[in-house]
Amino acid sequence: MNYNKKTILDVDVKGKKVLLRCDFNVPQDKETGAITSDKRIVAALPTIRYLLENGADVIACSHLGKPKGEWKTKLSLAPVAKRLSELLGQEVVFASDVIGPDAQAKAKALKGGEIMLLENLRFHIEEEKNDPTFAKKLSDMAELYVSDAFGTVHRAHASTAGIAAYLPAVSGFLVAKELEIMGGALENPKRPFVAVLGGAKISDKLGVINNLLDKADTIIIGGGMAYTFAKAQGGSIGKSLCEEDRLTYALDMIAKAREKGVKLLLPIDTVAAKEFSADATPVVVNTSAIPGDMEGLDIGPKTVELFCSAVKGAGTVVWNGPMGVFEFPAFAKGTKAMAQALADSGAVTIVGGGDSAAAVEQMGFADKITHISTGGGASLEFLEGRELPGVACLQDK
Ligand code: AMP
């Protein structure tokens, strides 16, 4: 996979109409539909400002929620246009359709340095089906395509991949940063390269583990997925999470790591409890001897020390998945210690999207991390080394 892609800095944008794929899939209040965090809109501002200041017209587009081809008022992007306009301090023209007459007319009327937002792309079922006629209609409004929605680059949709058949395609600043930092870590990491994997299930991370076995110097496994490894090695894990159908895989992986000279670190102690609940009493036990009526909910203090000292000496750290049930404060210590270790490490630190990103932000370490990926699924597929359709379609440098 080539990560060296052209960005908006490599092309002339002056006087061009630019179709900009953003990630405006903002969280909304379930009842009122009001935007509950504008973080994603704020994140899009540098690319938008650059394009406007350099004489382009921006035709922004995004999906919101899962309307699955139906026009749902609650999933309209109109409130996003309003918030974007407040943040930019400039009018954002809103089209009441996506590829229809309103959008086409409003796009035509843009006069240089102006911005409009199309209605929710997924109001058309053709978007997720990567329908070429839909992609062509989108492209008719513009002369250049800019991809800045990293969260959807692993999807081959009309606005993320199909569109590049009709327009020159480059990345915006958000996607460029993801490619530069994550691509750099996979292709030419500062060593030692330490990968920290956690979360609930091994099965979600098989591809990542396989890919990183060829790239990392150390792989650390925490979270619920560690107990399958403990059981595979003959341990008693009580009621802890276990994927019975992955026991052989776990043993194979231990053998593979040994073969390849990759250091594989697994928890030696565990914070367990009798119930899966926020007010369960935490008890520290040996990971290979968890009592039958208990389940492991966090890594224990000795494991914290072991894992954090590996992170301390790292040149690059990639982290995906919490070390325990961090949603319960009594079982968040391992995840917090890991976040702190990354923040203090001096290494290039990359946190995959989803739960580990949420944990780092919640715990206040976000500004001490080199890069927090904006895409959960996309960053996992990136770490798997898979070809991402929304990246592959961009012009090579
Ligand atoms: P994932 O989406 O696979 O990264 O998993 C994140 C989820 O894994 C979080 O909601 C955690 O609460 C959960 N998790 C982490 N460790 C454990 C554990 N030991 N037992 C149960 N769930 C866990």
Write the SSE topology.
Layout: E1 17-21, H1 39-53, E2 57-61, H2 78-88, E3 92-94, H3 101-108, E4 115-117, H4 125-128, H5 132-139, E5 144-147, E6 169-171, H6 173-187, E7 193-197, H7 206-213, E8 218-221, H8 226-232, E9 236-237, H9 247-260, E10 263-265, E11 269-273, E12 283-286, E13 289-290, E14 295-299, H10 301-312, E15 316-320, H11 333-344, E16 348-351, H12 355-362, E17 371-372, H13 376-383, H14 389-392
Parallel strand pairs: 1-2, 1-5, 2-4, 3-4, 5-6, 7-8, 7-15, 8-10, 9-13, 15-16, 16-17
Antiparallel strand pairs: 11-12, 11-14
The structure holds adenosine monophosphate.
Adenosine monophosphate is lined by residues 199-201, 204, 223-224, 241, 296-297, 321-322, 324-325, 327, 354-355.
How would you describe this protein?
With 397 residues, the chain is an alpha/beta fold. The chain folds into 2 domains: 8-175, Rossmann fold; 189-383, Phosphoglycerate kinase, N-terminal domain (Rossmann fold, 3-Layer(aba) Sandwich), CATH 3.40.50. It is built from 14 helices and 17 strands. Helix 1 (39-53) crosses helix 2 (78-88), helix 8 crosses helix 9 (247-260) and helix 10 (301-312) packs parallel to helix 11 (333-344). The chain starts with 16 loop residues before the first strand and ends in a 5-residue tail after the last helix. Residues 199-201, 204, 223-224, 241, 296-297, 321-322, 324-325, 327, 354-355 line the site of adenosine monophosphate (AMP).
CATH architecture of the largest domain: 3-Layer(aba) Sandwich
- What is the average of the pLDDT values? 96
Q: Give the overall form.
A: elongated
Task: List segments where confidence is low: pLDDT < 50 over at least 5 consecutive residues.
Answer: none
Query: Which percent range describes the beta-strand content?
Result: 15-25%
Count of folded domains: 2
Class computed from helices, strands and strand pairing:
alpha/beta
Q: If strands are numbered along the chain, what order do they take across the biggest sheet?
A: 3-4-2-1-5-6
